[in-house]
Amino acid sequence: MMAADGWYTFTGREDEIIPRNATRVCIDESVSVIPAWAFEGNGNIEELDCHDRVKTVEEETFYWCRSLRRVIMPGVEVVENEAFIHCEALTDVECGKLEIIGESALYGCESLTSINLPSAKIVEEDAFCDFHALTNIVFGKELESIEGLAFFRCTSLERIAIPLKDGIITDDDIFRMCKNLKRVDLIEGALHDIINALLSLHQ
Q: For this UniProt entry, which segments traverse the membrane (predicted)?
């Protein structure tokens, strides 16, 4: 359903065709999973508004949506592999209940400057790779693991807040080429798990 102001209501039908003049998308109340490839390559969408019963964004759903700048998904718990890859204009993300961030889920979202992930548990490989504008990221105490190259080439990253638990840092190259990372705020735990990861910053 298309409104005059550019809003389109996505219903999740298999044969659904997104109007090319739709610039803003809201998710219908009947949808709890935004299916894979639903908006792949759509260069017109600027804003996504999900109700709080949307729980999952499947793989490559917003692949290469270059104009997407704002994402509101208050109830989403899982963002699958490459769901928002190369959303280069993305600057505003609200995802307070997000728990699992899939491999390369936000790869190349180079305009995002900060993100707050209080509920995140799993950050998979390359999840935030090539975030060139990102300066600040905050995790909550629920975080369980961060996989290899998760923040590779986040060249502007200066601060990260992270709980340090046994096994949370799974690889030495998580912060590789994060040459401006200057501050690590420890939510709880000890420092020893992050030492090797920080040693790789200038490699």
A: none
CB atoms within 10 A of CB 192: 10
Burial category of 50 from C-beta neighbours within 10 Å (exposed 0-12, middle 13-18, buried 19 and up): buried
- How many Cα atoms occupy the beta-carbon half-sphere of 25 within 13 Å? 30
149: left (phi over 0), alpha (psi -120 to 50) or beta: left
* CB burial readout 111-147, b (16+ within 10 A) else e: bbebbbbebbbbbbbbbbbbbbebbebbbbeebeebb
Q: How far apart are CA 123 and CA 197, in angstroms?
A: 15
Q: Look up the pTM and report it.
A: 0.90
Q: Which helix (H) or strand (E) holds 94?
A: strand 92-94
Tell me: the pLDDT tens digits for 3-42?
667 899 999 998 999 998 899 999 999 999 999 999 999 9
Distance (Å, whole) CA 125 – CA 146:
8
Closest CA to 25 of 41, 36, 15, 39: 39
Give the CA distances from residue 178 to residues 39, 102, 131, 144, 203, in Å, rounded to whole numbers and listed in that order: 31, 20, 10, 21, 9
pLDDT in tens, 161-179: 998 777 888 888 999 999 9
Q: Which residues contact 176 (CB under 8 A, 6 or more apart)?
A: 149, 151, 152, 153, 200, 201, 203
